[in-house]
Amino acid sequence: MKVSVQNITIGKNPRRYFDPSDMENLEQSIRSNGLIQPVVLRENGDGTYLLVAGERRLRAYKAIHGDEAEIPATFPEDGNADVRVLSLVENIQHANMSPTEEASSAYELVLKLNGDMDEACRLLGWKPYLMKQRLALKSCHPDVATALDERKILLGHAELLVTLSQDRQTKALKSVLAHKISVADLKKQLNGFAQELATAIFDKSDCMNCQYNSDCQSSLFAETVDSGRCTGVSCFADKTTEELQKRANELQATGKYPVVKLVSADNEGTYLPVDEETVGAEQFVACQACAHFGAGVSESPAALGDITGSLCFDLACNNTKTAAFAKQQSAPARTAPASATQPLQTSTAGPANPVGQTTTKPAATANAAPKTEITPSGAMLTYRRNAWNIAAKRFLVDSDHTISIGVITTTLATRNTSNAKIKEAAEAVFGKQPSIDDAWKLADPAAAGNKKHGQLHQALAYAIVLALDPGEFSSLMAALDVKIANYWKINAEFLTLLTKNDLELLVQEINLPATPKMFAGKKAEAISEILAAEGKGFDFNGVVPKVMKI
């Protein structure tokens, strides 16, 4: 049957590009051999016909015979068949379409079949893997699809480009077209910037079936980058940033560090390490209570995600404290007076001694003068400051809140509040960061009847006290007449920080009678003997060794 070409309407064609050379060859074939395969039509019911398949043939036929010609046509045997399905199947099977045109048509066909990929494969005569390959090309940027349609790039180019994000596809395509980059060279270039999944610091569960995972790509395309790589560079970067921030937030939530920042080579000049070796053990205790004490989560590739603690983000203060400690360390050591060179002698106790008989230590050698007082170690200095911090806290809590007001006023007047964790102290009282209005309502003298009125002063004062330098802290404790003996006494933790020789000096200093076996064995046995003395007539209450004084 022949139908006038004027009565044929063209529906949606999956083919987007008609190659001029192919069309010229088709026209030449029709001139020489006639139209071998008729177009496929369907009646519209009004004397016109809908083109189901054969737009290339219709175009070529009209170019040869004009718009008034009649063209051979056939009609589907199943009049109720879905015209769009027939059109898609016919075009994919016979129209020499580009892979991206096939991808769009296959996708539409699967949708028409309500997602039944098996039925789509049956109608097309495709293997399932080919269907997956073509559907994967649906992620091509329109510019990439057009370039493949117009035969400006090869399928290998498209398979590599589709593994990139949409914005990167267009950038890479421009480079491919401008420099005529081969498939092999494009693969090398993409390998260069693709991220190795093994280096990821984030949870890779979502990556296992991701389109940017090269291992997933290798099951779809002939051309892919090396195994174990992510071509979704932006996604990889976003996930990395999210993980870094997560680690920083978790570290901040511990409350150990007032400041937690992401650190890299770009901002490494904004912080310095701080520890006992740089500022001294006692100062380091104060540093840990400072509002500028913190930690960093590394953004640098070589140490990505690594956490570095004990950082100071107040460079001016750090330089001052470091210089002060260095000066202290370089000062000449004091020599022991002549009267202190005699070896420790313990007297023999009489029957009235409730603890027992003492032992006599051998004389020191002529070349080594024995220690006459305990030299505090770094650990002891840390312990001592922490013990005094506790004493200061209990003193402030036990005292009228006006004492805390005095502390605040004094430290403000001497500019010793800049490093205090004021924000944390206020949040502890209010349960949030208070506004000016909130703070005044509680600080107002008229609110003196409110329990939190005094607590606010005490919390702020304690936050300031914690961050004071050793010298200022000592001066303030003396001014407040804080007695460490009221809040602390000799205990096992304290004794453990001393050497065995220090324990002997301690026993002498506090006039504790030594038992025959007190220093006959190991240090642990000596500690047990010292602690046991309290239950045998010796009272540790009120006894403060020199090493615990500031």
From TrEMBL:
ParB-like N-terminal domain: residues covered: 1-92
UniProt xrefs under Pfam families: HTH_ParB, ParB_N
Assigned GO CC terms: chromosome
Organism domain of life: Bacteria
Annotated GO biological process: chromosome segregation
Keyword field: Chromosome partition
Keyword check for Iron: no
Protein name as annotated: ParB-like N-terminal domain-containing protein
UniProt source species: Acidithiobacillus ferrooxidans (Thiobacillus ferrooxidans)
